[in-house]
Amino acid sequence: AAPLTFTILQQTRVSKGNSIFWGNASLDGRLSHLLVDYNVTQVLPLDPPDVWARRQEDVTTYLLYFGQLVKLFSKERPINYPQSLCCRLGCQLFPNGTAHSFYEVTLNGTAFLTFHVPTATWERRWPHEDAVATFAERELMKYPKTTRDLQHFLNTTCVGILQAQSAGTGKQSSRSHALLVLGLILGTIALLCMAVGIFLSTGGSC
């Protein structure tokens, strides 16, 4: 039997100082959220309309801030070719009760970083020996939000949502579903913000 899966896919394209966002979230194979440019929409009714409207506004504000930051970096260190960052993260719950969580980052289609959930450590996957990947790995290891908190989020919160879904109590956990999605979206954008900032601030040495 296939495992229950919750997955977020977040992509950001940066070109000439402009940022374009797109992505989605899926819960057990069903599209739950969709991100296009600066607008995130709720496909599954996991939050009441008034609550979701507030969350939607928060995400839009965060994306706008990200876009402004990219513009600032690009003025200081302009790059004449587009850059593409992609984050894929989530968790799986297998029929025997075991679980697996993951967080992968690619830069221009090449593996850049992965988060090793059991030890809460970031691992460099970039094939080139350069300062950008090394700096990104070192910086991400400095903060609880990108180490211990992220580990708890993927290992406990995400898996707990799937366990509730497996037990047929998903509706009772609708608020947790929405909070998980919001947390993953914001966490992903925070990482993208750091990665793009690092990359642009180095003048595109990748």
Automatic annotation (TrEMBL):
Entry keyword Chaperone: no
A GO cellular-component term linked to this record: extracellular space
Keywords: Glycoprotein, Membrane, Transmembrane, Transmembrane helix
GO biological process, one term: negative regulation of coagulation
Transmembrane regions: 179-200
One Gene Ontology molecular-function label: signaling receptor activity
Domain MHC class I-like antigen recognition-like: 52-164
Protein name: EPCR protein
Taxonomic path: Eukaryota, Metazoa, Chordata, Craniata, Vertebrata
